[in-house]
Structures are given as C-alpha cells and as structure tokens.
Amino acid sequence: MIGYWRIACCFSFLLFLCPANSSFTPLSQTSSHPFLGQHCSSSEKTALLQLKRDLSAAKPESSIPFQPSSGSLLTSWKPNTDCCSWESVNCHEVTKHVIGLNLSGHNLSGLVNSIKFLNLPYLERLNLVNCNIGEIPSFVQKLGGLVELDLSINKIHGKVPKWIWLLESLVYLNLSNNFLDAFEAPPSAPFLSSLTSLDLTSNLIEGSIPTLPISISFLSLAKNKLTGEIPVSLCSLSNLTILDTCYNYMSGQIPKCLEVLGDTLI
C-alpha cells in the first residue's frame, strides 16, 4: 500500500490528466455557423456591437507583439450583417441565439473593465484564453447560462472568487497557467454549482485544498504551492474520476477513502 501522497502523485492511480476522455469541445474550436434565411437576435447583435464600441474606446494597458489588437479582431462585426456570420461568434443552429464567444489570443489588457454588462442571455461558452486580462472579469457573474469558461494563460492574479461556485450552469472552468494564489472563503450558502471540470494547473495557490462542489469529476491542482495533508473532504466527490495534485508541497498519507476509489480514478 502506498503510504504517502507525494509518492502516490508520481506512481499511483491518482495521476495524469486525460483530455481524450473529456466530453467538452475545446472553446478554441468554436466558430460561427451562418444559416441561409436566418438571422441573429437584434438585441444580441446590439450587445455585441456595444462590446465592440467598449473595446474600441478603451486603450490596452500593454501590447503583445504577436497578438492582433481588438480592433482587427472585430472587423467583421458590422451592423448591416448577420452577427452569426461574424468572426468569433457562435450561434445556435435553430434559435440563432448567440451561444459562444471566442476572443482567444487577442490582447484585451485593461479592456475587460470597460465591459460592465454583456447582454447575451443565452451565452453558454466564453473563451478568453491568452488575452492578457490580468483578472477574472466581474461581468461573468451575470452570465447565468454560462456552461463553459476558459480563462487560462491570462496572468490573472489574486484569489479564486467564491462567486464562481454560485454559477449554477457552469460545468467547465479552466483557470490554468495564471498567478492565482489562494481561494476565497467558500460561500456561506450551500454550493449551487454544477461544475464537473476544474483546472487550476500551474498557478501559485498556497495553503490546503478547500471544500469543493461535490459534482466535480475532473480536478487538477498540479504545479501549485499547496501544503498540508490531502483533505478527507475530497472523499465526498463521489463523481471524481481524474485527480492531479502533482508538484505541490503536500505531505501525509492518502485518505483511505481515496485508496478505495483507486479503481475508478485515473
């Protein structure tokens, strides 16, 4: 029997991430799908045009040489065209509501603060990968139907906010490759989260692993600064199939309940 978590991290069943098993379509693959004779919602087009104006009026705090500006990103966003044909916009095939927005790879440093409210009530996927935003956008709290959120590679500092656990529809959250250093105290109310996939790989998170939503099946906390023992609270994650805590500073024995789950963990 493996006695210590550091050993287990390298040699046991609690090992590696398995993207091939993921049921999520990578947000970077979302694209626009125009359909002849159908058009996007006028209110959602208005919201996107307002977003374009907000981003055009704001000034980036810094430039990233290999990234295009927000202006060049939005050249296809024109009032006299169907927003479902616009670059980086994904619409539902039948309803034509905007369900996906992919702004990955563009320098939005200093611009997200100008977005006070994004009136896209049917938005399910938001991709802001490698946008140099530096913080988790507060407007995300108002996207009640959001299912997938990818904020990886963004130089995000500070704590993982507790309101993240109150987004009832959110299933996939990627905050990897940032500078997050802690979790805010969990909300006093019961978790409302439907979160199944949480990726916090390669951050600076210190302390112990907090209590997490029981819906989680994929959890990566690898390459952080976590300390202490593996909490028994992880045993309540009955759907957990992938767990990665490699390259931390944790010690102590593996909770027996996780050893029992070893046959179902990857």
Automatic annotation (TrEMBL):
Membrane-spanning ranges: none
Is this entry keyworded Cytoplasm? Answer: no
Q: Which domain of life is it from?
A: Eukaryota
**Which keywords belong to this entry?**
Leucine-rich repeat, Repeat, Signal
Q: Which residues form the signal peptide?
A: 1-22
State the Gene3D superfamilies in the record.
Ribonuclease Inhibitor
User: Which residues belong to any copy of the Leucine-rich repeat-containing N-terminal plant-type domain?
Assistant: 42-91
Q: Sorted alphabetically, which PANTHER family does this protein's record hold?
A: OS07G0466500 PROTEIN (PTHR48065:SF69), OS10G0469600 PROTEIN (PTHR48065)
From the Swiss-Prot or TrEMBL record, give the protein name: Leucine-rich repeat-containing N-terminal plant-type domain-containing protein
